[in-house]
Amino acid sequence: MFNPLLSRVAILLAKGAFRDFQTVDELLDIVPPEEGIVRIHWHPDFLQRPVYERGDGHIWSARTYCIRAGFPSLSNHDFRAEGLRAIGK
Q: Is residue 5 within a helix (H) or strand (E), and if so which, with residue range?
C-alpha cells in the first residue's frame, strides 16, 4: 500500500523539521506506549518557516508539490480516503 503522507515526512526530515529525529529509521523505531500518545516536537529553528519553501525562499504551489510527489492532483480528501481504505487491514 502506498501512503501519500510519506512524501511529506521526507520533506520535513530533509528540512530538519523535527527536534529529536533526523532520519526515517529513527521515526520508524518509535514504540508507542500502551496508553497515551507520542509527541514529536518541531525543531525550534523550524517553527516560523513554511513547510513547502523552495531553496530560493519562494513557497511551492500545490501543483508543484503534486508534480514533485508524482501525483496528478492531491487534496486533503485523498489522505483521508487512503486512511479509510486501510481500516481493518
A: helix 5-14
Torsion of CA 35, 16, 13, 64, to 10 degrees: 130
Supply angle C-alpha 81, 53, 45, rounded to 5. Answer: 105
CB atoms within 10 A of CB 85: 10
pTM over 0.70: no
With bands split at pLDDT 50, 70 and 90, how would you rate the model's confidence at 1? very low
Q: Which of 47, 7, 49 is nearest to 24 (CA)?
A: 7
One-character DSSP codes across 31-78: ---SSS----PBPGGGTTS-TTB-TTSPBPPHHHHHHHHT-S---HHH
Determine whether 21 is exposed, middle or buried from the number of CB atoms within 10 Å of its CB (0-12, 13-18, 19+): buried
